Amino acid sequence: MCKLLYEAANSIPTRTRQSFARKTWALKIAKRRCLKKPRAVLARRLAGIMHAMLRDGTLFEA
Hints:
Blueprint: H1 2-15, H2 21-32, H3 36-56
Helix pairs in contact: 1-3, 2-3
């Protein structure tokens, strides 16, 4: 699961064309530092979002 979250966090700033809050947040961190740190933090945040979605039974809306 950790590998999948990290891969998703890797593809969000680099491959998605849509703009949403988590992507812009990660890109701001990447400008100040290298891209490794935002990937790890974004993976952690995605895990939190997924946990909340599973707990509440809600669907993801970007």
